[in-house]
Protein backbone atom coordinates (compact mmCIF):
# COMPACT_ATOMS: atom_id res chain seq x y z
CA UNK A 1 0.00 0.00 0.00
CA UNK A 2 1.20 3.50 -0.79
CA UNK A 3 -0.45 6.72 0.33
CA UNK A 4 1.48 10.01 0.42
CA UNK A 5 1.21 12.42 3.34
CA UNK A 6 -1.10 15.13 2.02
CA UNK A 7 -0.99 17.88 1.01
CA UNK A 8 2.10 17.75 -1.20
CA UNK A 9 3.78 21.09 -1.90
CA UNK A 10 6.08 22.23 -4.66
CA UNK A 11 7.62 25.67 -5.06
CA UNK A 12 4.38 26.97 -6.59
CA UNK A 13 1.68 24.33 -6.21
CA UNK A 14 -0.29 22.26 -3.75
CA UNK A 15 -1.34 18.70 -4.63
CA UNK A 16 -4.07 16.97 -2.66
CA UNK A 17 -6.74 14.29 -3.05
CA UNK A 18 -9.91 15.34 -4.83
CA UNK A 19 -12.99 16.37 -2.84
CA UNK A 20 -16.65 16.21 -3.91
CA UNK A 21 -16.86 20.01 -3.93
CA UNK A 22 -14.16 20.27 -6.63
CA UNK A 23 -16.76 19.81 -9.37
CA UNK A 24 -16.99 23.43 -10.55
CA UNK A 25 -13.21 23.87 -10.80
CA UNK A 26 -12.82 20.58 -12.68
CA UNK A 27 -15.76 21.39 -14.96
CA UNK A 28 -14.09 24.74 -15.78
CA UNK A 29 -11.40 22.92 -17.77
CA UNK A 30 -13.09 19.63 -18.67
CA UNK A 31 -15.78 21.49 -20.63
CA UNK A 32 -13.16 23.25 -22.78
CA UNK A 33 -12.97 21.79 -26.34
CA UNK A 34 -9.21 22.42 -26.46
CA UNK A 35 -8.71 20.35 -23.29
CA UNK A 36 -10.80 17.45 -24.64
CA UNK A 37 -9.28 17.67 -28.14
CA UNK A 38 -6.68 14.92 -27.62
CA UNK A 39 -8.54 12.95 -24.96
CA UNK A 40 -10.95 10.06 -25.44
CA UNK A 41 -13.96 12.05 -24.32
CA UNK A 42 -15.88 15.06 -25.59
CA UNK A 43 -16.06 18.28 -23.56
CA UNK A 44 -17.96 17.35 -20.42
CA UNK A 45 -21.15 18.82 -19.08
CA UNK A 46 -21.35 19.50 -15.34
CA UNK A 47 -22.91 16.09 -14.56
CA UNK A 48 -20.14 14.19 -16.35
CA UNK A 49 -17.57 16.33 -14.53
CA UNK A 50 -19.31 15.45 -11.23
CA UNK A 51 -19.09 11.74 -12.05
CA UNK A 52 -15.39 12.11 -12.96
CA UNK A 53 -14.68 13.92 -9.66
CA UNK A 54 -16.56 11.24 -7.69
CA UNK A 55 -14.30 8.63 -9.27
CA UNK A 56 -11.13 10.65 -8.58
CA UNK A 57 -12.18 11.13 -4.93
CA UNK A 58 -11.81 7.35 -4.52
CA UNK A 59 -8.32 7.38 -6.07
CA UNK A 60 -6.30 8.66 -3.11
CA UNK A 61 -3.91 5.75 -2.57
CA UNK A 62 -2.32 2.83 -4.35
CA UNK A 63 -3.30 -0.48 -2.75
CA UNK A 64 -2.16 -2.72 -5.59
CA UNK A 65 -1.60 -3.25 -9.27
CA UNK A 66 -4.15 -1.45 -11.44
CA UNK A 67 -4.86 1.31 -8.92
CA UNK A 68 -4.68 4.98 -9.86
CA UNK A 69 -3.63 7.86 -7.61
CA UNK A 70 -5.43 11.02 -8.83
CA UNK A 71 -4.48 14.36 -7.30
CA UNK A 72 -5.98 17.81 -7.62
CA UNK A 73 -3.46 20.54 -8.46
CA UNK A 74 -4.22 23.80 -6.66
CA UNK A 75 -2.84 27.27 -7.39
CA UNK A 76 -2.18 28.58 -3.83
CA UNK A 77 -2.48 32.33 -4.57
CA UNK A 78 -6.19 31.86 -5.40
CA UNK A 79 -6.99 28.41 -4.01
CA UNK A 80 -8.35 27.43 -7.44
CA UNK A 81 -7.97 23.85 -8.66
CA UNK A 82 -6.15 24.22 -12.00
CA UNK A 83 -5.57 20.62 -13.07
CA UNK A 84 -5.15 16.99 -12.23
CA UNK A 85 -2.25 14.54 -12.22
CA UNK A 86 -2.23 10.80 -11.85
CA UNK A 87 0.02 7.86 -11.22
CA UNK A 88 -1.21 4.42 -12.31
CA UNK A 89 0.38 1.27 -10.89
CA UNK A 90 0.55 -0.85 -14.04
CA UNK A 91 2.48 -3.90 -12.79
CA UNK A 92 3.59 -4.94 -9.33
CA UNK A 93 5.79 -7.80 -10.59
CA UNK A 94 7.59 -5.66 -13.18
CA UNK A 95 7.44 -2.46 -11.09
CA UNK A 96 5.84 -0.41 -13.88
CA UNK A 97 3.76 2.75 -13.69
CA UNK A 98 2.28 5.50 -15.83
CA UNK A 99 1.76 9.21 -15.25
CA UNK A 100 -0.92 11.46 -16.72
CA UNK A 101 -2.10 15.07 -16.42
CA UNK A 102 -4.80 17.49 -17.54
CA UNK A 103 -4.56 21.24 -16.90
CA UNK A 104 -6.71 24.32 -17.37
CA UNK A 105 -5.36 26.17 -20.45
CA UNK A 106 -5.40 29.49 -18.59
CA UNK A 107 -2.46 28.19 -16.54
CA UNK A 108 -0.43 26.89 -19.48
CA UNK A 109 3.01 28.05 -20.49
CA UNK A 110 4.32 28.52 -16.94
CA UNK A 111 5.79 25.08 -16.29
CA UNK A 112 3.11 24.24 -13.72
CA UNK A 113 2.10 20.95 -15.36
CA UNK A 114 5.76 19.93 -15.55
CA UNK A 115 6.20 20.78 -11.87
CA UNK A 116 3.16 18.72 -10.86
CA UNK A 117 4.04 15.78 -13.13
CA UNK A 118 7.55 15.71 -11.65
CA UNK A 119 5.95 15.10 -8.24
CA UNK A 120 4.16 12.06 -9.66
CA UNK A 121 7.44 10.68 -11.02
CA UNK A 122 8.93 11.12 -7.55
CA UNK A 123 6.02 9.31 -5.94
CA UNK A 124 6.38 6.46 -8.40
CA UNK A 125 10.15 6.08 -8.23
CA UNK A 126 10.97 7.10 -4.66
CA UNK A 127 7.69 6.25 -2.96
CA UNK A 128 6.39 3.17 -4.76
CA UNK A 129 9.89 2.03 -5.84
CA UNK A 130 8.90 1.53 -9.46
CA UNK A 131 11.51 0.49 -12.01
CA UNK A 132 9.92 2.15 -15.06
CA UNK A 133 7.31 4.86 -15.62
CA UNK A 134 5.74 5.74 -18.94
CA UNK A 135 3.76 8.70 -20.21
CA UNK A 136 1.57 8.50 -23.31
CA UNK A 137 -0.06 11.13 -25.49
CA UNK A 138 -1.82 11.58 -28.80
CA UNK A 139 0.92 12.04 -31.38
CA UNK A 140 -0.62 15.36 -32.48
CA UNK A 141 -0.39 16.80 -28.96
CA UNK A 142 2.94 18.58 -29.22
CA UNK A 143 2.55 20.35 -25.87
CA UNK A 144 2.11 17.06 -24.02
CA UNK A 145 5.04 15.44 -25.82
CA UNK A 146 7.21 18.45 -24.96
CA UNK A 147 6.19 18.19 -21.29
CA UNK A 148 7.21 14.52 -21.16
CA UNK A 149 10.56 15.39 -22.74
CA UNK A 150 11.08 18.25 -20.22
CA UNK A 151 10.62 15.69 -17.45
CA UNK A 152 13.64 13.85 -18.84
CA UNK A 153 11.59 11.00 -20.27
CA UNK A 154 12.81 9.55 -23.55
CA UNK A 155 10.54 8.92 -26.52
CA UNK A 156 10.43 5.17 -27.04
CA UNK A 157 7.68 4.72 -29.59
CA UNK A 158 5.39 6.29 -32.14
CA UNK A 159 2.54 3.80 -32.38
CA UNK A 160 0.37 4.02 -35.49
CA UNK A 161 -3.41 3.66 -35.31
CA UNK A 162 -3.43 2.28 -31.77
CA UNK A 163 -6.80 3.58 -30.57
CA UNK A 164 -9.98 4.70 -32.23
CA UNK A 165 -11.27 7.97 -30.90
CA UNK A 166 -13.96 10.49 -31.62
CA UNK A 167 -12.09 11.60 -34.76
CA UNK A 168 -10.94 8.21 -36.08
CA UNK A 169 -7.79 6.17 -35.55
CA UNK A 170 -5.11 7.87 -33.49
CA UNK A 171 -1.37 7.57 -33.29
CA UNK A 172 0.22 7.56 -29.86
CA UNK A 173 3.62 8.58 -28.53
CA UNK A 174 5.13 6.65 -25.62
CA UNK A 175 7.79 8.20 -23.39
CA UNK A 176 9.54 6.41 -20.52
CA UNK A 177 12.05 6.79 -17.74
CA UNK A 178 13.82 4.19 -15.61
CA UNK A 179 14.48 4.51 -11.89
CA UNK A 180 18.25 4.81 -12.48
CA UNK A 181 17.65 7.68 -14.90
CA UNK A 182 15.45 9.40 -12.32
CA UNK A 183 18.03 8.88 -9.58
CA UNK A 184 20.78 10.37 -11.76
CA UNK A 185 18.74 13.43 -12.78
CA UNK A 186 18.29 16.55 -10.71
CA UNK A 187 14.95 16.45 -8.95
CA UNK A 188 13.55 17.23 -5.51
CA UNK A 189 13.12 14.48 -2.96
CA UNK A 190 9.79 12.68 -3.11
CA UNK A 191 7.14 13.55 -0.53
CA UNK A 192 6.74 11.20 2.41
CA UNK A 193 4.19 8.39 2.41
CA UNK A 194 2.54 6.15 4.93
CATH class membership: Alpha Beta
Low-confidence stretches: none
Class per helix and strand makeup: alpha+beta
Rounded mean pLDDT is 93
**Beta-strand percentage?**
25-35%
Neighbour order of strands in the largest sheet: 1-2-3-4-5-6-8-7
In CATH, the homologous superfamily goes by the name Gcn5-related N-acetyltransferase (GNAT)
- The helix fraction, in percent, is 25-40%
Q: Give the SSE order as H and E letters.
A: EEHHHEEEHEHEEH
Distance between the termini: 8 Å
The CATH architecture name reads: 3-Layer(aba) Sandwich
**Main β-sheet: number of strands, strand sense, barrel status?**
8 strands, mixed
Number of strands: 8
CATH topology: Aminopeptidase
Oligomeric composition of the shown chains: single chain
**Outline:** globular
- Gyration radius, rounded: 16 Å
| Domain tally | 1
Count every helix, treating DSSP H or I runs of 4 or more residues as helices.
6
Account of the protein in words:
This protein is of the alpha+beta class and 194 residues long. The protein has one domain (8-184): 3-Layer(aba) Sandwich (Aminopeptidase). Helix content is 28%, strand content 33%. The protein has six helices and eight strands. It has helices at residues 23-30, 33-36, 46-57, 112-127, 142-150, 179-184, and strands spanning 8-9, 14-17, 68-75, 80-91, 96-103, 132-138, 154-165, 168-178. Strands 1-2-3-4-5-6-8-7 form an eight-stranded mixed beta sheet, sandwiched between helices. Strand 3 (68-75) and strand 4 (80-91) form a beta hairpin. The chain starts with 7 loop residues before the first strand and ends in a 10-residue tail after the last helix.
